[in-house]
Write a structure and sequence with these properties.
28% of the residues lie in helices and 21% in strands. The chain has 271 residues and is α+β, with helices and mostly antiparallel strands. The protein folds into two domains: 121 residues, N-terminal domain of MutM-like DNA repair proteins (Alpha-Beta Barrel), CATH 3.20.190.10; 124 residues, Orthogonal Bundle (Helicase, Ruva Protein, domain 3). Helix 3 packs across helix 6. The longest helix is centred in the last third of the chain and has 31 residues. The chain binds a DNA duplex (16 and 16 nucleotides) through loops.
Length: 271
Amino acid sequence: MPELPEVETTRRGLEPFLNGQRIAAVRIHDPRLRWPVSPQVATAPCGQLIHGVSRRAKYLLIHLERGTIIIHLGMSGSLRLASGNESPRTHDHVEFLLDNGHVLRLHDPRRFGSVHFTEDDPLHHRLLSSLGVEPLSDAFTAPLLKSKAGSRKVAVKNLIMDAKIVVGVGNIYASESLFLAGIHPSRPAGRIALQRYEGLVAAIRKVLAKAITQGGTTLRDFVNGVGEPGYFAQSLQVYGRAQQPCTICGSPISSRVIAQRNTFFCAKCQR
DNA sequence: ACTGGCTCCTGAGGGC
DNA sequence: TGCCCTCAGGAGCCAG
């Protein structure tokens, strides 16, 4: 499932292959994604040069001469660059055919992903305009988290997964970061000291940055079109490890549903 | 202003 | 072998 590191990895992998290429045609095989793919996606990009590929939160932005293609991978989506004479697979819902004979395919079995096109500043798009700070930017700080927490009673796990506050912290990395910071996921956000938020911010940065480094493996697979499952699973400390010993103290890892999501933590190490 | 819950979808995995 | 059931999961949206 694409978390922020995987989206960033995808971006880095695609950019050198897409930059300077021209989109010859777009084929929408199945418009039924998270939101119906607008017919504009099939027409507006045609004939346009690709100027760059950037990322905001988990959205990939493919910048054209006039306008931007906005892609979200949802939880099962992937983008694959293939030779044009290779036939599309099941669940290849949208294809961008390039002048050089290659084709960029959005593959998304569960169809939680989405594709949009906008001629305006993409950061002003309704899906992007109210997003919080990037976790790897200087804007993501402990005082920011602390001020957003205020006196709120919401679990700190909800706080860091709230995309209006900070983007890109998915369910897996929320558990991992809170473990690294020694903070219990259910602790009310308003009852955490600034100093502990310093630790949490550092932990989120560390976990995401490490995952991006590991994403390099996925990058090559991605470009070559060879899947390599579970590349980051081996470095997970708590996620999916219920009842297994904590890597710090040895007591069994707990699991509980918090924020409608399965959450893993060590009840002894995290307070 | 907050908060919790629902929703989209399909593959995987367990039970029988 | 195969069918059925349940669950996971990003994030927008809505109701209370």
